[in-house]
């Protein structure tokens, strides 16, 4: 009878281990630290065939699209895959999917890879130690139909940029104080 109890415990441990690894984790999100082959923090110069789409005034923000990007996840077509660089470092990636089936398939893939995430009023979010991801579900007001928008952001890059700004501001204050 004692051996049977140990057998049940071993089977339970194996099942728990399998289920937790099959559902993904936030550690996997942090380990990926990017999208496809694009790693957060990589300099713009390490990418080829980038086409500038938008240039912001603050933080030297620039949004690009890759001319040679496949724009697919498995067989799911992605639209508007945008790579945002701040101070010439990859900081975030955003993409859109159309159609209810595609939207649901992407959500399942994200949950399989990174866990169930946290439900929000417009979708789901995942908060790793160095990466944050959100997946918003909605309807396209211009073209109609269901859409999903995924945004993956490097929390580490945003913190580094903020710290750099704080240091720059402090050095300007010190210089101004010395000029008094």
What does this structure look like?
With 180 residues, this protein is of the alpha+beta class. It has 4 helices and 12 strands, in the order ααββββββββαββββα. The strands form 3 sheets. An 8-stranded antiparallel β-sheet has the order 3-4-7-8-12-11-10-9. A hairpin with a 2-residue loop joins β5 and β6. The chain starts with a helix and ends with a helix. 18% of the residues are buried.
Envelope shape: globular
Main sheet, how many strands, which sense, barrel? 8 strands, antiparallel
* SS-derived structural category: alpha+beta
What percentage of residues falls in helices of 4 or more residues?
A: 25-40%
End-to-end CA span: 86 Å
Strand content: 35-45%
Provide the residue-averaged pLDDT: 81
Give a count of the beta strands, DSSP E runs of length 2 or more.
12
Tally of helical runs:
4
């Amino acid at each position: 009878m004692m051996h049977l109890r140990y057998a049940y415990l071993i089977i339970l441990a194996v099942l728990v281990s399998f289920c937790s690894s099959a559902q993904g984790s936030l550690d996997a999100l942090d380990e990926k630290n990017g999208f496809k082959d694009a790693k957060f923090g990589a300099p713009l110069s390490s990418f080829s065939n980038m086409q500038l789409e938008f240039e912001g005034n603050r933080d030297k923000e620039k949004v690009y699209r890759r001319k040679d990007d496949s724009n697919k996840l498995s067989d799911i077509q992605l639209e508007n895959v945008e790579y945002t660089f701040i101070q010439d470092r990859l900081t975030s990636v955003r993409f859109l999917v159309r159609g209810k089936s595609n939207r649901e398939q992407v959500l399942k893939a994200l949950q399989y890879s990174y866990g169930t995430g946290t439900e929000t009023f417009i979708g789901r979010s995942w908060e790793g130690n160095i990466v944050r991801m959100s997946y918003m579900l909605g309807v396209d007001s211009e073209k109609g139909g269901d859409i999903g928008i995924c945004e993956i952001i490097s929390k580490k890059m945003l913190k580094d940029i903020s710290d750099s700004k704080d240091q720059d501001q402090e050095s300007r204050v010190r210089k101004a104080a010395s000029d008094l």
